[in-house]
Amino acid sequence: MDSGSHTRDSRTPSTGSGDPTALSRLSRPSPLSRPSPLSRPSPLSRPSRPSRPSPLGRSRTVERELVHRTSVAAVLLTDVRPHGPLSFRAAAAWPRSHPTFPRGRDDRHSPWMIVETLRQLGIYIPLRHLDVPRTARFLIDDLSYALDVDAEPTAPHGASEVTCLVRVGGLRTDRGGNALTGLRMRVDFLAGRRPFARAAGGARFLDAERYDRLRTGAGAAVPSGAGPRPEPAVLGLASESDAVVAVAGEELLVCPADPRHPFLFDHGTDHVPGAALLEAARQAIALRSGGRLVRPVACRMSALRFTEHAPPAVIDCSARGRTGEFLFRQGGTTTAEGVLRYA
C-alpha cells in the first residue's frame, strides 16, 4: 500500500495494552470477522478430510515490485499462498538487524515490523491474486495492530520466521463491477504455532489516470529541515538521521533529517507516506513523555486526506498514562489522527 494519508470523500481518496487480551480489545468488528458466503460449504458437497497445507517457502523474498519496494533488503515476505476463498497463508522473515527497525535491548523486534508486513501483504495479494493492475496506486484508509508482549518472538540468529494468516473482505468494485477498487484485510501473526499479534487495515486502489488528475500540482520532492531536533535517545533512536520531527517554537513538525531515508523514503512520493507519519507520531509522543513512551504495543491510525511534504505538517499529541494520542494538521485541516498504546 502506498502509505499516504488522504480524504475519504469523492474529491480525494481515503486508513492495548501488552496483556494477551489486547488483541481482542483493540480490534474493531469488521466485515472480515463474518464468514464470506463463498466459504460456506455446499449442501451437495461431501465432507472430506482436510489436507495439511504444504510448508511455506522461506528461502527467498517475493518480487520487490509486488510490495512497492526499491530495495530488496526491505522486502519481508517470502511466500504467499491462497488458503480458501479470500484467505491466504504467508511467510515473512523479520531480520535480526534492520537499518530502520532495530531490535530492542531485550532482542524484541520493532512493532513497526507488524505494520510493514501488513502493508506488503496489502499490496502483494491484490496484485498477485486479485487482478489489480500493477499500474494502480494503493492508498491506505486506516490501519491498526495489537501486540501480545508475552507471546512475541525475540530475534534469533539470522531472522524470525513469522507466519501470517490473512483474511480479505469488504471488497469494493467500480460501477461496472469489473475492477476492484478497495478492500479490508485482517492478519494474524504467529511465531511457530503461537499467535502474538493481529493487524487490520483498509485500502483503496486508483488507476493511474484518476490518481494523476487528483494529484495534479502536488509536490514530489521531500524537503529536509535543519531545525533543532530532540536528542535521538529521547526519541528511542540510535541516530539523528532517523529523526522525522523537528522543533519549531512550541510546535513539532514533520521534518525528515534524511529525505532519502532507506526505509521511510525508499522511493519518491508526492506526499508523506503513512509509515513516516506513524514514526513521526511515535517520536512526538516519545518526546512529550520525556522518553517514557517509546515502544507502542498497539496502534490505530486513520488517514483523512493527503499529508503534503510542504508546508511541514504540525503534530499535535498528548501522552497520558500508557496512551498517546496524535493528529497531524496542515493548513488548518486535520490530515491524519490516531492513538498509540504502550505496555
Helix content: 10-25%
State mean pLDDT (0 to 100 scale). Answer: 83
How does the helix and strand content classify structurally?
Answer: alpha+beta
Number of strands: 12
Question: Helices and strands in order, then pairings?
Answer:
Layout lengths: L21 H5 L50 E6 L4 E9 L16 H18 L7 E11 L11 E15 L6 E12 L2 E13 L1 H7 L30 E4 L2 E4 L19 H15 L7 E8 L10 E7 L2 E8 L2 E10 L1
Antiparallel strand pairs: 1-2, 2-4, 3-6, 3-9, 4-5, 5-6, 7-8, 8-10, 9-12, 10-11, 11-12
What can you see in these coordinates?
This protein has helices at residues 22-26, 112-129, 208-214, 274-288; strands at 77-82, 87-95, 137-147, 159-173, 180-191, 194-206, 245-248, 251-254, 296-303, 314-320, 323-330, 333-342. The protein is of the alpha+beta class and 343 residues long. It has a twelve-stranded antiparallel beta sheet. The relative contact order is 0.17.
